[in-house]
Amino acid sequence: MEFIDIAKSRYTTKKYDASKKVSEADIERIKEILQYSPSSINSQPWKFTIVGNQELKEKLGKASYFNEEKLVEGSHVVVFSVVESAANFEENMESYLAEGAVWYYNNFLKPQGDEKVQNWMSEQVYLAIGYFLSAIASMNIDSTPMEGIENDKYKEILGLDGYQPLVAVMIGYRDEEDGNQPAKTAKSRLELDSVVEVL
Ligand SMILES: Cc1cc2nc3c(=O)[nH]c(=O)nc-3n(C[C@H](O)[C@H](O)[C@H](O)COP(=O)(O)O)c2cc1C
């Protein structure tokens, strides 16, 4: 399928078919897709947690506001977490970053302060989410990005040490009746010319 067709057919799934699960083989592919996410200076300041266990999903569902039903009925949830502090990042970076990348970090990012570094790391995680939403659609798997989660509760439930959950992405297969699918509700976007210009 052409990428433009994937872009137009993927959508935020609001209701899942609880009887359909993502296969083990696809979960293995998804693990690698996540591993290959791109990031500035190859910083990779993240942890991806995939939860398929029903009990654990339901526990997370209780910490997911209006998203709870998706956690109960969807197949797996992928939690995108960021390294919790600049200090944690700096502790490990030299073991895997190129020399030039460490230089860039120390001379351009670090002098701007911890808050800037934390925001920059979160930006990398959000980039991985965007990449993941397209990748998962290319596998004909439905998904829901969810900022509507209680981040601290997720951290506690998942036992994430040194990482802060930012966004969860539910994956699975749509309920045929899901009213949000493009065949039932047309996708809504700003006018092309108001958001894209070619000079
Ligand atoms: C970072 C992010 C967080 C979102 N959080 C939620 C959420 O908590 N629950 C939900 O149902 N949709 C959520 N959405 C879905 C958006 O509302 C949706 O992407 C947007 O309306 C465009 O619709 P489409 O994805 O169907 O094209 C989120 C989307 C993004 C990118």
From TrEMBL:
Belongs to the nitroreductase family. The lineage of its organism: Bacteria, Pseudomonadati, Bacteroidota, Cytophagia, Cytophagales. Signal peptide: none annotated. Residues 8-173 form the Nitroreductase domain. Its cofactor is FMN. GO terms for biological process: 2,4,6-trinitrotoluene catabolic process. It holds the Pfam family Nitroreductase. GO terms for cellular component: cytosol. InterPro entries: NfsB-like, Nitroreductase, Nitroreductase-like, Nitroreductase/BluB. CDD domains: NfsB-like. It comes from the Bacteria. GO terms for molecular function: oxidoreductase activity, acting on other nitrogenous compounds as donors, with NAD or NADP as acceptor. It comes from Flammeovirga yaeyamensis. This is Nitroreductase family protein. Keywords: Flavoprotein, FMN, NAD, NADP, Oxidoreductase.
